[in-house]
Amino acid sequence: MAAIRLRSPRYRDSVCTSTHLSVQMTITISNVLRYTIIKDSIANQKNLFEYSELARDYIDITWTGSYSGYSPQAGLTILTDIKYFAGANATGSEVTSGVSNGGQVTQNGFDSYSNFVEGYNKTIANNETLLSNYTQTTGGVKTYTVYAPKSIGGTLPYLNSAGTQILYSSYGTSSVTHTLPNNQLINIERYGCNKYDVVYIDFVNKYGAIQREYFTLKSVKKIKAKREEFKSNIVSSTGSYSINEHTIQNFNIVANEEMTVNSDYLPEYYNEVFTELLLSDQVWAFIKPFSTNSFTAIPINITNSNLTYKTQVNDRLINFSFSFKMSYDYINNIR
Predict the structure, then answer these.
(1) Were 264 and a residue from 5, 93, 139, 216 both cysteine, which residue would form a disulfide, CB within 3.0 to 4.6 Å?
(2) Torsion of CA 111, 121, 29, 167, to 10 degrees
(3) Measured at the alpha carbon of residue 103, what is the angle toward residues 31 and 42, in degrees to the nearest 5?
(4) 192-228: buried (b, 16+ CB within 10 Å) or exposed (e) per residue?
(5) Torsion of CA 124, 130, 131, 135, to 10 degrees
(6) What is the distance between the alpha carbons of residues 174 and 152, in angstroms, rounded to a whole number?
(7) CA nearest neighbour of 281 among 110, 132, 75
(8) In angstroms, rounded to a whole number, what is the distance separating the alpha carbons of residues 164 and 72?
(9) What digits encode the pLDDT tens for the residues 194-246?
């Protein structure tokens, strides 16, 4: 079964040369019929169906910050079935002769996308390494290199041989290379020591896999508050008032934490890696909040609206800066 990318359009096209009046495509997701699409149709008319946006509504990625127990990440099982009917609105007898590209197709969908230049109906190959941390020769040979701080282990995603699950393979705290079960060699470059605390950023990359990148240079955290005010009448029935009572009252105070992080110095191909971070729908900072003093995956929203691609010729040393805000109000107001 093919692994398809549900953040980009996915099409099925079909034609029937026999006489008929309608065509129907049903979409069954995880063994439950979810959608029935019916179109008017006549003989030799090409019929096109797009269904990725409908299927993507049923993807649910949850993340706690720990890869332990998380693998495998199952794809969404999608069965589409195209049929032709003699009557309008999928009534009458089913027409089975002269049908091309009809019938049932089962696929596995991930929260993934393709680029415009990659073309339409781009799939993820079975056993593919699900990272863009690579350089590539003109012949298409990829050399993968990831960057990680010293004494920190990591986890790398790949698609299984059946195209049904994203699996994760862990490397050790001192590893400088790691071979995935799909036989892909990954080089691991270690950052040197520095005076800043490492900020771990996790995100859903273009393949639909959870990827972790490390921001090891200066980070700045701040809090921003908004409030409304009204002027209160503090005069008593005798005309007196307390000088200790507020005449200007605050209400509806809300606050949100923000953070700016900086990567270490990286090669040019990290332009692609951080483009995926910028375009990710789901991003988390794996950090230790002051109030809990324990590491957890905090949902965040990237506030950068652009990323300037950097080159060694223009920039010499390449590092990237991202700003984000916590995806919740500082004061707990979940009701």
Answers:
(1) 216
(2) -40
(3) 125
(4) eeeeeebbbbbbbbbbbbbbbbbbbbebeeeeeeeee
(5) -60
(6) 7
(7) 110
(8) 10
(9) 788 899 999 999 999 999 999 999 999 999 898 888 888 888 888 898 888 89
Contacts of residue 24, Cβ cutoff 8 Å, sequence gap at least 6: 36, 37, 38, 39, 82, 83, 84, 85, 90
Q: Which fold has domain 134-221+255-326?
A: Pnp Oxidase; Chain A (2.30.110)
Query: Domain extents for the chain?
Result: 3-118, 134-221+255-326
Can you tell me which residue has the tokens 């079975």? 126
In a 3-state reduction of DSSP, which class is residue 313?
helix
**What is residue 175's three-state secondary structure?**
coil
3-118 has CATH 2.60.40 classification: yes
Q: Predicted confidence band at 315 (pLDDT cuts at 50, 70, 90)?
A: low
How far is it, in rounded angstroms, from Cα 183 to Cα 177? 12
Indicate the burial class of 320 (C-beta count within 10 angstroms; 0-12, 13-18, 19 or more): buried
Give, rounded to a whole angstrom, the gap between the first and last alpha carbons of the chain.
43
Q: Give whole-number Cα distances, 74 to 30, 43, 104, 164, in Å.
A: 11, 39, 21, 6
Smallest Cα–Cα separation from 89: which of 37, 45, 48? 37
Cβ atoms of 93 and 86 within 8 Å: the answer is: yes
Per the listing, tokens 């490397």 go with 171
Q: How far apart are CA 321 and CA 312, in angstroms?
A: 16
Buried b (16+ CB within 10 A) or exposed e, 268-298: eebbebbebbeebebbbbbbeeeeeeeeebb
pTM of the predicted structure, to 2 decimals: 0.89
**CA 38: distance to chain centroid?**
31
Q: How many helices (H) and strands (E) does the chain have?
A: 3, 24
